[in-house]
Every structure is written in structure tokens, then in C-alpha cells.
Amino acid sequence: MANQQLHRRFSDEQFITILENYLAGELKAGEAMDALDLKKSQFFNLVSQYKSNSNGFTIKHKGNNGNRRISNDKEQNILKELVQDKQLIDNQDMPIHNYNYSAIKDNLERKYGFKVSLPTIINRAKDNGYYLEKKIKKIHDREVVTNNVGELIQHDSSFHQWSPYMDNKLYLITSLDDHSRLLLFADLFEFESSWNHILALKSVFLQYGCPLKYYPDQHSIFKYVKDRDKNRPFNVYTKFTGDVITQWSYVLKECNVNLTCALSPQAKGKIERPYRWLQDRIVRTAARDNLKTLTDLRLVLKDLVYQYNNKWIHSTTKEIPIERFEKSIQDKKSLFRKFKINNPKQTVDDIFCLKEQRMVDAYRKISLMGVEMKVPKGIPRQTVLLNMTPVEKDEIVKIRFWQKNTFLGEQTRRLDNLPIVRF
Description:
The protein is α+β, with helices and mostly antiparallel strands. About 35% of the residues lie in helices and about 15% in strands.
């Protein structure tokens, strides 16, 4: 019985009756302590509390009255974080639709240096009107359907305003291994283009190898749909849906990687969950730290990806993604193939690039977007292949010319002269 909590052994009325008997002299201190099964210090502490506030005295568990457990400063800091969360939710441009009490808990410890329980934060939220009932969501299959890492890579992008202190929205592009749930690539970009998605492929293939299959949505960057994409560059408008190989999918073909496009957003639920986690944390960190630049947000993203991959236990696999990934490699459950170039005259820039074809005229010249170029070694009246690699930091485009598997040379042009590579 002594191991039971006091409020479970006695009601307030029973406990107060014994205290009143002691204070009236009807019980000695030792007798009262024996009756209540309390040590001397505990007993006299409770007697003191009763004397100072007999009307409000209770032995109920203090968890039922959490407001008495933390200081006023801590109360105000909790409310301050809740107010900031509400401002993000009310901002229609922010990808935040619910309160994140776990994030608030982390912020309180990081920002103010104190720990508080999640129920305490939720109770304050409910008491002060910072609480939204969770919507009932449609249930989608989120089970792991692959048996190997590299068997299926989910790829997607998300367009949002990531900081309340930035007017422009940014694109978050990510690639996720289905089996391990490891984020293989994640980066923010000012605009969405085939080239930025090709950069994602390049990062994954060079670091991890070539997977068996990629699984994006039906965005025009990934799949040509007749009529819908009639204004896209590079496409042949007389062909039907699926007949045209997009710039991005051409890289997959070069690396012998299969492509399957999801038929609906719900079908890509496995990558949507990490997206929501990243979106939520990036926006809240940006709001907390007054972040205003793409560089700042990229640093936040890098840290969050590290936490997700190396610290967090995934809700579906019940494992940390990097540990599940590495264990699969050790157990020889991997379908990644080492990236390699078969043609000794090719470079990485001939694989991960934007491609265009032009006919060489009688003067060994071609024209691209109104820019005339000489092809000294080109055979007139025959097609030449242009492998274009934007180098955005230098504002240039490197162009490597090929004709019938023969490398003709490399030229450089200004990026602003060839806007086609922006797509």
C-alpha cells in the first residue's frame, strides 16, 4: 500500500479528516503519520500546505492541475510559440495547416533551455484556443512493397513559400528509396526545370548507383501527354501520350533505369509523408530564426535530412532509414548497379545533360534558339547531337557535339542566350 500514490489511497475528505484530527490534538503526529503512511518530512510539508490554503488544498495528482507545475515565464514562452504557429497556419501561402506540438516542444528546449511534456503543451493549446481537431484522412496503402534497396525510387517536387520572410516560393525536389525510406536527394530550387531534376538523378546515380526503377508523378517533365504538353519545348506534337522521351526520362534510358509514373497523388503517399515532415520543420525553423535566403533554407534542409535519415525511427518500417539501408546492402538485398560509362569518349556531361538535335548546313553551321554555331568537323546535311550542360554559377552552357557516335568537340555559350536550357 505504501507504494501507491497518496491520491490513490485516500480521497481529499479522508486525508483532511486525519489532518484536522491531528491539528485538533485528537491524534499525535506519529499516529497521524502511521495512519497516512507518510514520512515525517512529507507529513509536515502537507500540514503546512493545508494551513496556508485550507480551501484550495488537494492531494490529487498534480498532473491534473498542470498549470501549477511550471513557472509563469515558461507559460508565456509556450503561448508565444503557439501564437507563432497560428500565424503560420493562417498564412494561406504557407504549407502549414495544423499545429505541431512536438516541434514546439523541441523549440522550447532549443530556444529557451527548458523541457516540458507534450500533454502540457496540448493542454495549454486547448485552454487558449490554439487547437484544431484532426481531420479524418482517407486510408492509403503505405506498406513497404519492395524487398530491396534500389528496387524503386520515389521522386517528386513540392512548390511552397518556405519562409514567411520571403516573398518568392521555392521548389523542393526529393528522391526516396522505397524499401529503406532513405532520402537519397533533397534540395531547394528557385524554379522547376528538367535540368534541376536531372541534377537529382546525377546526385543519386553517382553516390548510390543506378536503381531498377523510378516512380514520379505525371508532370510534363517526366511524361509527355498529348495536348496537355503541346507547348513544351523538345516535344514532337504529332506523337501521342508516352511516345515522346522527355529530357529527364532520356537520362533514365541512357542509364538503363525503368520508369513508371503514378496515376494519382495518393499513389505516392510514401514520399508525401517525409515531404510533410520536411515542409513543417523547414517553415517553422525559418519563422523562428527569421530566415530570408535560399542559402539559409538549404542549410536548414540539410540538417533536417540528416535527422530524418540518421536519427528518426520511421513510423512504417520501425527502423532508422540509414540503418535499414545499410543492413540491406550487407544482406545483399540491393538492386543498385554501379554507374559506369561504356563509351570511353563520353564523360558524365554526356549522360546528365539536355539533348537537342540540329541539321548541319552546307557551311558546317547550326542554329539553336537564334544562336548560330560552327561545327568544323560536322558532316553537312547530317544531324548533329548537342549535349548541353548548364553551369549556372558561371552563367554558361557547355555544349558537346556528337555525330554518328563521333565526338566533334565542345563549345561554351552564355546561359542567357540559350533560354531553352531553363526548361
